[in-house]
Specification:
By secondary structure, the protein is mostly helical. The protein has eleven helices and no strands. The model has no long low-confidence stretch (mean pLDDT about 90).
Amino acid sequence: MIAAVITAIDVQEMEFRIRYCGSARELPDIAAGLAELGEAAIPLIPALVEKCPAQLDWSLRRQLLPLYEATRSPVLGRYLLRNRKELGVQDKCRLFDAGLAGLEEDLLGALHERWHNLRDAANIVVRAEIVETLGRHGSEQALRMLEVIRSRLSGEFGEWAAKVRMSGAATEDPVFLSENLDAWTNATFLETVQEAVAALGRRVA
């Protein structure tokens, strides 16, 4: 696939769309168009942010995340941080992956609340995503929290983690898994934590 060539006319067109935007309903489509410009959109983002509502809504949030990923604009980053309460945990993982370092404390707080909770299936997915994100980009503080979680899980599920690594016949036995699902889930999560600790330890050492 041949990448689209961004021209000065493309940039000027988006500049006029922002300047003469008559309704907040137009902003998600404008943000999507800016994301297609990539880094060429960076000079236009302050004007876009001036048009954005003080409180971020769902439809605009969906488009501002890929726009930040495409540009890493500090102006847009500050706007998103001001609206961090409107962002979901997975939104914050995406933005932290894209370089919005100010969200690390939010992710650590979410992980502290979620890492031992197995009652919600969605939570099991989210806690692993937080750990993987912190493993890629976290600080020494993230490493310390992950080490605590690893220690607590290892004491209870270390033997199960060894079985996860072996991935033997037990993992294919539905009766075995149904009878031991919580332990198996936590052991799998422990493996994720151990991988993140190893990766983060190498990076922050």
